[in-house]
Amino acid sequence: NKILPVTADNNFKGYRISLWAFVLFTALMTWRSIIHMFFEEYGLHEIANVIELEGNPDPMPLIYIFFSVWGLAQTIFCIVCWVVITRYRSLIPLMYFLWIIEWGLRAFVYPIMSGDPIGSGTYTDGTTPGHIMAPYITLFLLIFFVISLMQRD
To answer: I want to staple 30 with a disulfide (CB 3.0 to 4.6 A). Which of 62, 78, 136, 141 is the partner?
Structure first.
């Protein structure tokens, strides 16, 4: 009932610290999504450490488009989070749960499923911050998810 409340309203019953942690986390994720969407070359090469591929025709414009679309998907999810923050705060535990799924998969499942081809050094010259930080962010999200479920007096 706390994750999927019968009525979605602006009445958040969890502790305020989990609300403010969600606001700060959403701000950080919004910044990340904007970088991926509008500054795809910088995000792909400088942050994600993906090397520039060469070929004829040049494959990079297509890769930048896909990277930008990924940023768009992140931006849409962040917009939903901002709507929840401003209008439907009773859904904050649900949003934490959805972020846990994303970051948990990134931290623990995705490297196993993919065989980690990107981390092999073939296409990169370093590890992405998202891969390094994923276990810590997942733990952060789990802690504040639990706190968001606790009802304050």
So the answer is: 78
